[in-house]
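Standup notes, structure subgroup. Blocker cleared on the flavin-adenine dinucleotide input:
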Amino acid sequence: MDHSGFDVLIVGAGIFGTSAALELRQRGFKIGVIDPGPLPHPLAESTDINKVIRLEYGSDEQYMAMAEASLTGWRQWNAAWDEPLFHEDGVTMVTHQPMTPGGFEYESYQLALKRGHQLERLNADELSRRFPAWKAGTYVDGFYDREGGYAESGRTVEKLIALGKQQNINYHEHQTAAKFIEESRRVVGVETREGDRFYADVVLLCTGTWATILLPELSAVMKSTGQPVFHLRPAQPELFQPPQFSTFTADVSATGWYGFPLHPHAGVFKIANHGIGQRLHPEKDERIVKPEDEQKLRAMLADTFPSLVDAPIVYTRVCVYGDTLDEHFWIDHHPERSGLVVATGGSGHAFKFAPVLGSLIADAVEGKANEWLAKFRWRTLGVSAAGEEASRHHG
Ligand SMILES: Cc1cc2nc3c(=O)[nH]c(=O)nc-3n(C[C@H](O)[C@H](O)[C@H](O)COP(=O)(O)OP(=O)(O)OC[C@H]3O[C@@H](n4cnc5c(N)ncnc54)[C@H](O)[C@@H]3O)c2cc1C
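Run returned:
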């Protein structure tokens, strides 16, 4: 079947696709969105019970400015929606050693102070006094930022889709883009594996970690890695409820560990690791948490949250990140395929920016000036950026 008449066809309905769809619709465009579904897609990165929303980005002032604008956006969404999906219980970031210049936490702390945020510095005693679930003495430095927290991410995507449908955005589930349709060297649509054809003035590719399947040229600048996520059921749930507990990072540059307070609906404690991860093909490889991942988790819990050492793991997931080698987003017109715009990448950390992603992507589609877009333009990434190091942008 053929579908036509769209100004913009968005391929992929994760947070990039759904936020762009709403913004472009508000700018007056006729929008179609396709995704294999069901929506939100269970394997999409955006589909999870929660994601960290934080201001801290080391010394990177642009990301902090974007996170500030996003925080305002999350608060506005909370006020406008029937049920708040952003839980602003703060973020605790701690280190095993004293914070030092050049370190992620130190630079984040200094930049946040410089930009007028009020952080509470924590030493070992204050950490375990204020947040009793933490093992006394393991972490000796850090801070608590009362701004930020976490968003119920899968439900946020669901909400954006519902809002989009009210605004006549056409969501087509069970449609998987298989190839681009080109006429006179211009992309004019996509053909799906299911046999349909969708035509539009512009095709906007928002397929996250699947982007390299349709655009193999992106394999030179993007990699897909799987990283483990665990849900545990604490025996003392009250220890993990705000205000005695908040979203946290635990010496994250060195360890990769970050996590969340008890989930308000699921009643679980979610903890995840963002490290080197295992290279995975987003479609071909199985997504299985390995026994050694669980051993590392148990060691971390013994060192950090002793009451969780024997807590049953009730769910595990390997989330496949689609990251650019420099961990920045990739939002631009394809330089060699007119009619095609790509918005993806930098995906270890994009969810928090949901309230500003739509306007970033829409400005790229329209070719409008945007002070933040230069960082995310089409670029060449050297081999040095591809080092197998733990990521700088965790959660
Ligand atoms: C474990 C984990 C933890 C994270 N934690 C955080 C965090 O705490 N804070 C934070 O800010 N960010 C976090 N992130 C990053 C964040 O989740 C991602 O940056 C973001 O969700 C990526 O959104 P996306 O729309 O690009 O991709 P996705 O959400 O993966 O969406 C892509 C969509 O494209 C669809 N698709 C794929 N192929 C096709 C095709 N051929 N045709 C049509 N549709 C297709 C898929 O079905 C999917 O719905 C985390 C990521 C992971 C993996």
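Discussed briefly. The two ends are 40 Å apart (CA to CA).
Next: hand off to the docking folks.
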